Amino acid sequence: MLSSVRIKKFLYIKDVEIDLHPKMNVFTGETGVGKSLVIDAITFVLGEKGNYEEEDYVELTFEVDNDYSEDGILVIARQIKNGKSLYYLNGRKVGKSLIQEVSRDLIEVHGQHYSQRLFDKDYHREVYDKYLKIEDKLQEFQQLYIQYQKLKKEYEDIILKQSDRLQKIDFLQFQINELQSANLKEGEKQKLEQEYNYYSNIQTIKESVEFTKALISQENGILQNLSTAVKSISKVSDFEERLSKVLDNLENAKTLIEETYYDLEDFDLDFNQEKLHQIEERLNLINHLERKYGYDEKGLINLLENLQNELETLLHLEDKTPILESQLKQLHSLVVEKANELSNIRKSKVKEFEEEVLNHLKDLAFKSADFKVLIQEKELDRYGIDKVQFLFSGNKGFEPKPLDEIASGGEISRLSLVLKLISKKSVNTMIFDEIDTGIGGITAVSMAKKLKQLSKDFQIILITHLPQIAVIGDKHFYIDKQEENGKTRAVIKQLTQDERIKEIARMLSGIVNEDSINLAKELLKQGEVWTR
């Protein structure tokens, strides 16, 4: 339910908080005072378009049991800032569409100036099905329908795949053959790159080896100079003990250089141009495949396995088609059967529903009204094969028409009231504006009784100018205008019992005196009797 409305600023309302009753809330006030401002403030939060002012801010607090709140409290708000609308859900900035989605099943506004779900033909079916109490049958049908849609999609996907199946198979086989013929092995590329570096630099290696051999073996080369040094030191090493170690080092160096020379002599530097060409071709192939498929060497090996699996699946697709086709036909027959059952129930209760609506409408001053339920066949969907549409005429001699062609907000509001009464359509809060337009006397009493009956299942917020309806409120709010610093300001207050008696007296006779107060007290007593 809507527990409170906090208006920080909205047009000429400022700093007002309205704590609402979970059942019946009535708002009254002098003619021209702007009683609908409260409803305007609520619809402002719900996303209604209008000429709003900078810094307008309204906040609605709901007590809920849904996924949008963990603690059972849901706060939605809207603010006008820098000419733009800002929406908030539990203090978090959100989009308008989310606010409308959240509030859709929480609150409905019925009145001449507001968009109404009653114009939505899907809503007609919801209301009618609720009246018929076919929720279980509808749920059973929808479960079957979901299974049917899932199987249908699976079947259509296979048919679609089969339409380009051969082309896809050819393409996969080409890719697989290309990768298989490459015979890729993990780590091969790194080894090839090392070999390529060797063979492509073999001439440089050869030149370095020959140059080093020459340095060692040539006249006055390293080896000859070392031999000369050994001879020179050996002549004097006996005279100086420390030179013995020097001699050892020189002899070791001479031996190491000789061994190095022999190693270089044995160095195999055969240059194989064909081998280098083969390595280049292999590397070019691997690099080409990596660029083409967007994978490295290891990724290409995994890709080949995946492509082989995909090809295997495609090659066996047609095996499943006849089975799915048979299952789909059987399930479609069952879904159509259940849809026809729903349709038969809907059609069988049309007259009963029409008569019940008309009986309620007659109590609300629609003596010559006509109401029809039009059920037409449509393409199968999750609600069956029926398009349900309500038609209405408030005057004798006029054919019933679709509800969006009815101009009167009062007619729509009263029809909404009747449909709520007989369908118990799930929504938490209902707001009525101008529901009592054009009625009075005994009709007003009938409407008061119906509204009170409705408030047993829903929270009701309504603007009224009729005392017969005002007396049924569990909370009674009064809206007035005051001048403050040369500016008009709206004042909204909850009436005490004494204040309420005076307001009912004013509504009855236009003045507050002893006679009108006595009449007001009597009407309040009668109101208690009407609503038992």
Automatic annotation (TrEMBL):
GO terms for biological process: DNA recombination; DNA repair; SOS response. It comes from the Bacteria. GO terms for molecular function: ATP binding. Keywords: ATP-binding, DNA damage, DNA repair, Nucleotide-binding. Residues 2-483 form the RecF/RecN/SMC N-terminal domain. One of its GO terms (cellular component) is bacterial nucleoid. May be involved in recombinational repair of damaged DNA. Belongs to the RecN family. This is DNA repair protein RecN. It comes from Sulfurihydrogenibium azorense (strain DSM 15241 / OCM 825 / Az-Fu1). The gene is recN.
